[in-house]
Amino acid sequence: MPKILNVVETAYRATIEEQDDTVLWLSHMLKNSGADIAVLLRANAVNYAAKGQDASGLAFGAARMARGPEIDKDVANLLAKGVPVYLVEEDAVERGLVDGQLLDGVKKIKKQSVPELLDQHDQVWHW
């Protein structure tokens, strides 16, 4: 079975329709099907690892979402299922995210270590 790394760089893709990030949802489904999968959060997607996000009250014009996305819970659920979740430390620092604000279990890696992480996987999917 190939080792797959999902690299999530574009944050909040399709959160309006699915109310969750589609790549995180796909990662859950693949893990449930027995895939050997990991996730790397980089660029704006490092925000997904911030604890206690609250998007309640999210609206687009007059259209209010009945249920806002709970991306941090989606990441926590991936971790609970044994999916390794990494984030690029420099990207988190640029966005003001420090250790106490990040979900426990997310593995921080330096930007210079990304090629090594990519090399540890048979397939790399970039979103």
Outline the structure in words.
By secondary structure, this protein is α/β, with parallel strands linked by helices. The strands form two sheets. Strands 6-5-2-1-7 form a five-stranded parallel beta sheet. Strands 3-4 form a two-stranded antiparallel sheet. Helix 2 packs parallel to helix 3. The longest helix has 11 residues.
In a few lines, what is going on in this structure?
The protein has 127 residues and is α/β, with parallel strands linked by helices.
Strand order of the main beta sheet, please? 6-5-2-1-7
Low-confidence stretches: none
Structural class: alpha/beta
Give the strand tally: 7
Share of helix, binned:
25-40%
The N- to C-terminal Cα distance equals: 21 Å
Question: Which percent band covers the strand fraction?
Answer: 15-25%
Note the run of SSEs as H and E. EHHEEEHEHEHE
User: Would you tell me the overall average pLDDT?
Assistant: 90
For the largest beta-sheet, the strand count, sense and barrel status come to: 5 strands, parallel
Number of helical segments? Answer: 5
Oligomeric organization of the protein chains: single chain
Query: What would you call the shape?
Result: globular
- Kindly provide the radius of gyration, computed on alpha-carbon positions and rounded to a whole number of angstroms: 15 Å
